[in-house]
Amino acid sequence: MKTRELRSTAIVLAAGKGKRMQASVHKQYLLIKDKPVLFYSLKAFEDSLVDDIVLVVGMGEERFCRETIVEKYGFRKVRAVVAGGLERYHSVANGLGSIDWQCDYVFIHDGARPFVNHEIIKRAYSEVQLSKACIVGMPVKDTIKIADQRGYVAETPARSLVWQIQTPQVFEKKLITLAYEKLLSEEYRLSAEGVAVTDDAMVVEYFMDVPVRLVQGSYENIKITTPEDLKIAENLLQETP
Known about the structure:
By secondary structure, the chain is α/β, with parallel strands linked by helices. Helices cover 35% and strands 23% of the residues. The strands form three sheets. A seven-stranded mixed beta sheet has the order 5-4-1-6-10-7-11, with helices on both faces.
């Protein structure tokens, strides 16, 4: 009996407004080396082992992104361009809901991280097939302090156990879909309790009895959030052959 080929989809999130960038243009459309930040994330997945891409953009920007980015740069793996939602997790849920084709694993990636690369994607894909849930990150370089509500140090965790988390975050599709269904059904309760959903792994951690594995990313896999980050990105690209 022939084994069915496993397939994966990358959901690339580009619906954020990037208020901390202090620019009139959303950060994912700012230029680095004459190409928008979003181009580099899409290019990495286009050239990777990922089979399909869902691009999640700001509401009303679907046609703009399809014409000026997807079609302009010839991204053939982009099967859907969908509108995001009020919060990041709404955008992820919209991306998941658009996948109506065969898909076993889902990569969820911030479009404002232009330096994801083939090695990171391959490491994460290998791990998710073993553990069902994994996230990319790196051990922190600095000592971390946990503060109390008064602004005093409450705890100093062992630096060897603390990671800065990046994307992509990769999951078995059935697992992450069910986790998000549970999140959406309880989002008002969580909001009332002051629980802020900051990444996809948190959704799995909170709702599913599945451990999330850490996978090595790269210190260069930065997120473009402030003007300083854009300068760092320009320098990193200048160093790229």
